[in-house]
Hints:
Layout lengths: L5 H18 L3 E4 L5 E4 L12 E3 L24 H48 L4 E3 L5 E3 L2 H16 L3
Antiparallel strand pairs: 1-2, 1-3, 4-5
Helix pairs in contact: 2-3
Amino acid sequence: xxxxxxxLRVAALACLVLGPSLAQAQYSWVAPNGVRxxxxxxxxxTTPPSKILKAPGHAPERALPAPAPVVEAKPQATLAxxxxxxxxxxxxxxxxxxxxxxxxxxxxxxxERCEAARQVKAQVNAGARQVRYDxxxxxxxxxxxxxxxxxxxxxxxxxxxx
Length: 162
């Protein structure tokens, strides 16, 4: 039969009391970003000794808490300033849209002129007789000089086309 002697009881009590303390974190340090870490593994080698708060075999050092990082506050724009900036952005956007609409209209008109010049050039090059109507509404057949002038005018317009 097993007997519990007083010395065995003291040893068991010591194990029960000291056991939880061995399970606690053995290392404590402050990272460069100011975060405090607790671990049973040593801190990274890049951690300076002054930032290690607790290590096995060393008494815990009383370190001052890391100062909070200073963040410079940018001056907040007032509501009136925000509204003025918004109005300015709206006006700028409206001007850009107007300019884009004008450019689109200009490109469309240029495309129509180019297409009309191509048609005139094709009619002149077809070799068929061409006619025009005078002020009295009578048909007049174009001469070779008038056809050449009409072709030259169409070539001039087509030179600006892509």
